[in-house]
Amino acid sequence: MTATVTRITGSLAEAEPLRDAALYDLVRVGPRGLLGEIIRFSGPTATLQLFEDTTGLEVGAEVTSTGASLIARLGPGLLGSVLDGVGRPLAGLAEVSGDFIAAGATAPMLDVARRWTFRARVHAGDVVGPGDVLGDVEERPGFEHRILVPHGVSGTVESLASGTYTVDEPIGRLRDGAALWLAQRWPIRTPRPVARRLAADRPLVTGQRIFDLLFPIAEGGTIAVPGGFGTGKTIVEHSLAKYADADVVVFVGCGERGNEMAEVLHDFQALIDPRTGRSIMERTVLVVNTSNMPVVAREASVYLGLAIAEYFRDMGYRVAVMVDSLSRWAEALRDIAARLQEMPGEEGYPTYMASRLGALYERAGRAIALGAPERTGAVTLVCAVSPPGGDFSEPVTQASLRVAGGLWALDAQLARARQFPAVDWATSYSLYVDAVTPALAAASTPEWATLRRRVLSLLQRDAELREIASLLGADEMADRDRLVLVIAAMLREHLLGQNAFDRNDAMSPLTKTAALARLGLAGYDEADKRLVAGADLDDLPVAAFRRAYAELRRAAATEDGEPMAAVDRAIAALRGGS
Ligand code: ADP
């Protein structure tokens, strides 16, 4: 008996009888074959969540189950692709703002026409199991896409041959007859298993001074980035996607404006990865669900992004996932729950929102992958959160804070003062500081931990003094205190501040970050010494020093020695200028 639609409410529909299907199976609905997912059963009645516009769909339309859940097809060709939330590639890159996938379209996730050159690494007679590397494909110049034995598959290799293949042609088979392929399928809601989880104790260098110096993130770590409208969440996510030291970046644009996603595409294509000399898009997968696409597809898009990230992690790569924004994901959950008439929890979110959110964050981590040869990879997760009205006490921000390993809190007042990134250093934190400091120091300067501690304490002292100054007026303060105000203002502007739109400033290598911190503190020490010796603050060449400092900030990033030399020159200027 064919199943038919019995009820339609927005993007939800009921259908019966759907007895043989399973929860989360994909379905096709109506004459256009709209894509949907079974999200609830009650008796023979299934509730369907449709990923597409249901305009024109009628009661009585036929429903067929595909017998499979929302599945990603993972294989060569993912890098550089732009997918919608259910994994269909968006064709015309320039037109992301338009809704240009025809409803019911079944564009395959991977390019099925493209031929890849496969080099076999195992041979007939070898015994293989889940996660073992069968061989590789050079997906992009210098990027080895490792072809892994899928989960649940093992046996003795009957045949496996180097050669050129499409993702639809078998590359070999096992003795039991099972075919081997370049691509594999994975249900996106299920975390991909690993051999062993590892501590997140290596830094992911972001190229953003305030993060690397004050609130560092570890590979495999998780950070929540809450901020009200216009506080710079999107710019933070973009800067990380562009400059963070990851092998692969997955950017999930969840419910953001179409024109923003078009901008991302444009930007990423133009940007050159300094390590490879090639477009940054070549290491990037974009998953986009702009606000003009169906709400429910957003809920799936985050899982799709994570499944892709885990797949590259399993090859042994360091993957960074940016989600902008997780609030849109949670709102999608809320919408669906409301239509299902589930009991609402806090602010209308379903009661399981926090646990689902926790489960999402848990898919991040560093791990040893299944199979041989041994590979270590990581999925680092940075999620923007958009609390309505910038109020961090709302449920999605709170749920994020409970599970994330760090908080980069964006502050509306700082954004209004055009202090960008508008990170509130008083409330932000990172639980990875101790674990990653040795590696950051090794990559920059042995003083790294001292610089960090001293910058933070200067900022702290500055906050106290500014409070006093607001009561007394700065003129009434001692010179040594005024010096703190002057130097802290300089550090806020040029060390913590970073202009995403300035070619030299947008990305700061650790050595430049360290040089700026060191110069600021050295200038402070020198001036403070003079004040103690009886000098007058107004007689010190503070303005000249600030100029030298701003110049160093604007300078193109240089090799190790150079910023340090500039530091020494600036200090000499400070000394000489008395
Ligand atoms: P949100 O996503 O939080 O709404 P955006 O990321 O779109 O905010 O940022 C809003 C605006 O703030 C940007 O258009 C830009 O003008 C400014 N901005 C944010 N971060 C920076 C930065 N690092 N450098 C320069 N300008 C910035």
Properties at a glance:
Rossmann fold; 28 strands; 14 helices; 6-stranded antiparallel barrel; 4 domains; binds adenosine-5'-diphosphate; 578 residues; OB fold (Dihydrolipoamide Acetyltransferase, E2P); 10-stranded mixed sheet; alpha+beta
Describe what you observe in this structure:
With 578 residues, the chain is an alpha+beta fold. It has 4 domains: 3-69, Beta Barrel (Elongation Factor Tu (Ef-tu), domain 3), CATH 2.40.30; 74-106 and 195-432, P-loop containing nucleotide triphosphate hydrolases (Rossmann fold), CATH 3.40.50.300; 116-182, OB fold (Dihydrolipoamide Acetyltransferase, E2P) (Beta Barrel), CATH 2.40.50; 444-575, Bovine Mitochondrial F1-ATPase, ATP Synthase Beta Chain, Chain D, domain3. It is built from 14 helices and 28 strands. A hairpin with a 4-residue loop joins strand 15 (172-174) and strand 16 (179-180). Helix 12 runs parallel beside helix 14 (561-576) and helix 13 packs antiparallel against helix 14 (561-576). The model is unreliable at 92-100 (pLDDT under 50). It binds adenosine-5'-diphosphate. Adenosine-5'-diphosphate (ADP) is lined by residues 227, 229-235, 420-421, 498-501.
